[in-house]
Amino acid sequence: MKSLLTRATLALTLAISIAGPAAAHRQWMLPSATVLSGQDPWITVDAAVSNDLFYFEHVPLRLDGLTVTNPDGSVGTAENQATGKYRSTFDVHLTQPGTYKVAMASGGIMASWEENGQRKRWRGTAETFAKEVPANAEKLQVTEGARRLEFFATSGKPTDTVLKPTGKGLELSPVTHPNDLFAGEKASFKLLLDGKPAPEVEVTVIPGGIRYRNDLGEMKVKTDKDGAFTITWPTPGMYWMTAQTEDKKTTVPQANKRSASYTATFEVLAQ
Amino acid sequence: MRTLLSLSMTGLAVTPAMAGELAVTVEIPKLEVAEYHRPYVAAWIETPDQQFVANLTVRYDVKMRDNEGTKWLKDMRQWWRRSGRDLTMPVDGVSAPTLPVGENRLTWDGAKAPLNGLKPGSYALVVEAAREVGGRELIRVPFDWNGKPVKAEAKGETELGRVAVEVKG
After folding, report:
1. Which domain holds residue A39?
2. Among residues A84, A108, B40, B86, which is most buried (max CB within 10 A)?
3. Which residues of A fall within a CB distance of 8 Å from B86?
4. How many distinct structural domains can be found in chain A?
């Protein structure tokens, strides 16, 4: 029983860290604020995986791979990290003026095959693949996953250093600054895959507060040939954005396809 | 800032037509609430298409230790977006203590900053108020700055009362 439980927990953790096409739940980080003034601002952040946005009702988001990028591009610290039953939390001390990026970027491999007529699933890394996946596995499907989950927060004047793409996986290149979003206004973004425009990708945007309304309020837009898209924010509040692509550009030889996802939280202020 | 009232217009007549006086009245309503804090108030000038031109005054808790009162400046979110986030507070001639309940008449000399740089044309006075544990309100009062006398006003509903502009030519 104990080992079963451990295995289930492990599988869940890995599933979250390399969200594949089958991942049903929504992953998110929710900052206490994204636009800050004052001499010594802090933010505190909730991180969870759930159905409804932004409520803790399923499992916490593991904080492995969490990175804070300071406005000057240096690596910052996520302080007071804790993981509870339904959510993880951490704090970021905004010691520099400008825009911070708080992100979780991760990768991994998912495999499935048939063994004696039964479907087997496996998740791991390129290193463990050879050891744990049978060499003669039937109907083997191997997907490489690349996930990015992030948000931005600004102390004082918004800056652009942290907005520069890393060139890996699916990423957002903001045209409108992500901490200068207002209800009723149009915001422009570009979606990039490996640093290049990602055309014809569906981007989904959902306002928070799902529990207290009937309509999901989901907005779907497709990126144009330059990877560009715009969102007009209907109301103030926190919004969840996600997009996903699949292609054959794998970096590990075992994988036959790659799945890349981008998910972010944006705060839209009232006029 | 109210001490500026004592600035007289004597002598200004010899300078160009634009060197008038701008008087702004901001009424802070008396509110029957259990926990009352004076609102933060920003007043600035913008163009008719809402482009920021100049700050007139920013009223906040300037006396708090370690400049801590700046923590809530972003609650005046239109001011914060248009100007505040570009500034390092306190700013001389702009930062000032919060305003008491009642009508507060503030005046600016047309021959001095920021009005001496204001080209003749149409503008709006914008007053934004945000109150701790309270609400927020923003009022725009359009006015012309061309050397001719102007009187214009608007009335707030929650955090602001009468907001008036008077230009003396």
Report:
1. 2-268
2. B40
3. 157
4. 1
